[in-house]
Amino acid sequence: MDISTLKDTATQVRRDIIRMVHGASSGHPGGSLGCADFMTALYFKILKQNPKEFNMNGTDEDLFFLSNGHISPVWYSVLARAGYFDTKELSTFRKIDTRLQGHPTPEEGLPGVRVASGSLGQGLSVACGAALTKKLNKEDNLVYTLHGDGELQEGQIWEAAMFAAAKKIDNIIATVDYNGKQIDGPVDNIIPLGDLRAKWESFGWIVFEMDGNKMEEVLETIEQAQKATGNKKPVVILMRTEMGYGVDFMMGTHKWHGAAPNDEQAENALSQLSETLGDY
């Protein structure tokens, strides 16, 4: 998929996010919108995957774990658009008896989801286990994760970071959505993260940085990160994004971290996002 098509896909994903959260009057649009470019690049360009024959083990496939599970709208959208399930199911988001729960869970048998997430801090530990399994099985595939910056306030993240470096887990690429905002406000006002690059490097990781809202830069940086794997060190990407990216009134504030737009706001948001692939 070329850059232009990837950008069009990311725009449609953003439309999906707005429509899903509005339809449920519940959900987390801010971080979902901010990560749409990264998730689109991952699922339509990067991952070695088999959507039509999904299995929990993911043998001979790359794996992805969404640690900050509250941004499920963006994940559900790219999964559906990539062919894991019918896009029409997006209309059931957060509804009664849906497989598309507010936080992803494998209990409902949703293709693409291998572990429940949303209880923050656990995704890196899960990914380390999966990456070690790949190595034991002598698979060359990679394990990818996505985390929120507020999530880095969880101690388990740093336990897993130490473990990954100690065990030389060099087939993992973790990405941090560094938008500077969490549900209670700016991250620096809650628990400042300090020099994140220096922190990860001191824990023994190879660190890359990128603008997560520039598709070209996302692809280029992930390619560099891939080349850095296999060197007896885990890899992390610090990804700067803007929460609510693509919708002007949702940007520059933490207020849309977990709030649904009303009818007028949804109409306004959708007017800013072209219907590039067709709505579900």
Q: Poorly predicted ranges (pLDDT <50, ≥5 residues)?
A: none
> H/E order of the elements?
HHHEHHEHEEEHHEHEH
Give the spatial strand order of the biggest sheet.
1-2-3-7-6
Please give the count of helices.
10
Radius of gyration: 17 Å
The largest pleated sheet is described as: 5 strands, parallel
Tell me which oligomeric state these chains represent: single chain
Report how far apart the termini are: 21 Å
- Tell the overall outline: globular
Mean pLDDT score: 97
Fraction of helical residues: 25-40%
Strand tally is 7
Strand-residue fraction?
Answer: 5-15%
Based on secondary structure, the structural category is alpha/beta
Pick out its properties:
5-stranded parallel β-sheet; two-stranded antiparallel ribbon; 39% helix; alpha/beta; single chain; globular
Layout of SSEs?
Blueprint: H1 3-24, H2 29-34, H3 36-46, E1 63-66, H4 72-81, H5 123-136, E2 143-148, H6 155-166, E3 172-178, E4 181-182, E5 185-186, H7 187-190, H8 196-202, E6 206-211, H9 215-228, E7 235-240, H10 263-271
Parallel strand pairs: 1-2, 2-3, 3-7, 6-7
Antiparallel strand pairs: 4-5
Helix pairs in contact: 1-3, 1-4, 1-10, 3-4, 3-9, 5-6
Task: Give an overview of the whole structure.
39% of the residues lie in helices and 12% in strands. It is α/β, with parallel strands linked by helices. The chain has a 5-stranded parallel beta sheet with strand order 1-2-3-7-6, sandwiched between helices. A hairpin with a 2-residue loop joins strand 4 (181-182) and strand 5. The longest helix is centred in the N-terminal third of the chain and has 22 residues, at 3-24. The two termini are 21 Å apart. The model has no long low-confidence stretch (mean pLDDT 97).
